[in-house]
Amino acid sequence: MKPAAWRSAAMAMAAAAALLHLCSSMAEDKIAKLPGQPQVSFQQYSGYITVDKMKRRSLFYYFAEAEADPSSKPLVLWLNGGPGCSSVGVGAFSENGPFRPSGKILVRNEFSWNKEANMLYLETPAGVGFSYSSNDSYYAEVDDKMTARDNLVFARRWLEKFPQYKHRDLYIAGESYAGHYIPQLADLMVQFNKREKIFNLKGIALGNPVLEFATDFNSRAEFLWSHGLISDSTYHIFTSACNYSRYIGEYYRDSLSPTCEKVVNQVTKETSSFVDKYDVTLDVCISSMLSQSLALSPQHVSERIDVCVEDETIDYLNRKDVQKALHAKLRGVSQWTVCSSVLEYNFLNLEIPTISVVGSLVKSGIPVLVYSGDQDSVIPLTGSRTLVQRLAKELGMNTTVPYRVWFEGKQVGGWTQVYGDMLSFATVRGASHEVPFSQPTRALGLLRAFLAGRPLPEAF
């Protein structure tokens, strides 16, 4: 065989071997069937992506392909917040994934986002859910920059494992502290694409996000007062003697003043532990008082993902047969938890604004949607709306869709305003901090419009 022919044959064999390795890698992560799962036609995958050179950190993912025609649908990466809470347990199994636990079985979520997209859920950073570091010292003082870097490596290596999605339209969506995770990851993708274009990033959607510490947190007082949860006198001291951003700053610096402690104790007393701060109109599950957003209510936690479905999610994901089906393992912890028991996140990162990063993304041509469940008192719509309006003004963006109502079905879905063709704000009527859980029909309509790049419906 001539040298040129030999090289050509060798290259062909190498390419075939690489393809075989990729197919084998995908096959290893394919889920045959989850315990108690109803019959479905779409494919599911889950497993680990190693994100560091020493192979000590591995991030766990769950991937549900679109219900119909996945090859034509975009890829949506979903991130929950915390920091330190699970996108698989919260996002996939309680909010917008294809199934929800019910006793010992899974039931279909008729408003799953995989009706519109291929949905990828990532437990990040290492130490969250089934994600882990074999070096425990990593868990001390994890911060936003570390998380963003690992998330970028995950995204690159996941696309290598699933090359058919490498040039697919990509969107990143999430809520709460993902207001930090998502803009920082998207910014790294934009920078990476300048060297090697592999991320076909088409937009980001931020639900009830932490974007600017003081504005977001201090809007809580007016929301609580306007919804009748605190008295006039408490509202006055909550805005004058000690506002919420000051309280959070003091709390995480271990320098809580008697004044702030007194004010927040009074707020907590009046709002009551029997009202869900993340959805002020709904009941709470007495047996389940865990929180997705530990940093947002550090002392007085009473968030629920569902009225008691959180307990069922915990039970389901701690079953050995479920973990085996998911190709998941517990490393360094005795059980799977909604929010990490080992991660020591640098909560002072809360004070670093990400609204400026959102602005740079808009300027680079990445569409941004900020949406707010209007019953959330933790990151209220008033703060998010103020920040989006301020950003639009700073960027010189004119209103293209004036503030108006939008519809889903034959009901008001919420209100919306659009600036230019890159920046949008929307409220979701009757929705909590976890919009896809509390208003699944409206959340799916919101996603559908965002992926299509069109304004929310103004008629039904």
TrEMBL record:
What is this enzyme's EC? Answer: 3.4.16.-
Q: What UniProt keywords are attached to this protein's entry?
A: Carboxypeptidase, Disulfide bond, Glycoprotein, Hydrolase, Protease, Secreted, Signal
Q: Where in the cell is it found?
A: Secreted
Instruction: Give start-end of the signal peptide.
Output: 1-25
UniProt xrefs under SUPFAM superfamilies: alpha/beta-Hydrolases (SSF53474)
> Which domain of life does the protein's organism represent?
Eukaryota
The molecular function terms of the Gene Ontology recorded here are: serine-type carboxypeptidase activity
The family database entries (Gene3D superfamilies) matched by this protein are listed as: 3.40.50.11320, 6.10.250.940, alpha/beta hydrolase
Q: Which GO terms describe its cellular component?
A: extracellular region; vacuole
Q: What InterPro entries has UniProt attached to this entry?
A: AB_hydrolase_fold, Peptidase_S10, Ser_caboxypep_his_AS, Ser_caboxypep_ser_AS
Task performed by this protein = Probable carboxypeptidase.
Member of which family? Belongs to the peptidase S10 family.
Query: What's the protein name?
Result: Carboxypeptidase
- Which organism's genome codes for this protein? Asparagus officinalis (Garden asparagus)
